[in-house]
Design brief:
Strand content: under 5%
Distance between the termini: 54 Å
Radius of gyration: 21 Å
Largest sheet: none
Order of helices and strands: HHHHHHHHHHH
Shape: globular
Number of helices: 11
């Protein structure tokens, strides 16, 4: 935020250069964590390896309830990588003198676009172009002209939902912390750090679970829906 002191802002100035600098810092932290976790792999993990294995196991468990264990493992690299990036980006803004990259729409919007294009690509890849977009028309033939544009708008709105939810919440947390530090800079903000850390974790969880939900909607085949007559399929001569 313009006018608020940050260490990297003092070096690079406020604006896009500062955001890029914080993104590089987040990348360095994530690489350091990965190096520490894989430096000396053991059958009985400890330290950073234990934490990361627990994290990956938690991501799989999260996806298992949404999309099944096999698919959860398939998409683990994407969801786990996005999750650790979002979490580190969220948490770094809690440290005075730093700013969360995810408090900038120019960071959260590309993340949302990546998820949007990826789950649509996976859906088209698995089901084919015709069958994938045929699902947008719904199972009721008469309602297809109404349902298809509604589904298109609904999918596009996911970009706005993903990006602005994360951006708005983290930006609000940063503003809350900055105001609190200006008013009572010592003991009083300490309880707020617990609340902000929980918020950072919650926003990370929401972003990750939504990736699994969108992927499930794109690649999971609804047998009853497949059996129902579909106007788009009938029109294009597909089975």
């Amino acid at each position: 935020m313009e006018g608020v002191f940050t260490y990297l802002g003092a070096i690079f100035g406020h604006g896009q250069a500062m955001i890029v600098a914080h993104l590089i810092l987040v990348a360095i932290i994530i690489i350091a964590i990965a190096k520490m976790a894989t430096k000396s792999l053991r059958a009985v993990p400890n330290g950073t390896q234990n934490v990361m294995e627990a994290y990956l196991g938690g991501v799989i468990a999260m996806g298992k309830d949404v999309i099944g264990e096999e698919m959860a493992r398939k998409y683990l690299p994407l969801v786990a990588a996005v999750g650790i990036f979002v979490f580190v980006s969220n948490v770094i803004g809690i440290i005075p003198g730093f700013e969360s990259p995810t408090s900038n729409i120019n960071v959260t919007l590309p993340l949302a676009l990546m998820v949007f294009f990826y789950y649509n690509y996976e859906g088209i890849k698995k089901q084919g172009v015709v069958h994938y977009f045929a699902h947008f028309a719904g199972p009721v033939k008469l309602l297809a002209p109404l349902m298809f544009p509604i589904e298109i708008v609904s999918h596009i709105s996911r970009i706005i939902s993903l990006s602005f939810r994360l951006f708005g919440n983290i930006k609000g947390d940063d503003l809350f912390l900055w105001v609190l530090l200006m008013l009572v800079p010592f003991v009083a903000p300490l309880p707020a750090y617990l609340l902000l850390t929980f918020s950072a974790l919650l926003q990370t969880f929401v972003f990750m679970i939504l990736i699994y939900v969108y992927l499930a909607g794109a690649v999971a085949i609804d047998e009853e829906h497949e059996k129902a007559p579909n106007p788009v399929v009938d029109t294009m001569g597909a089975v």
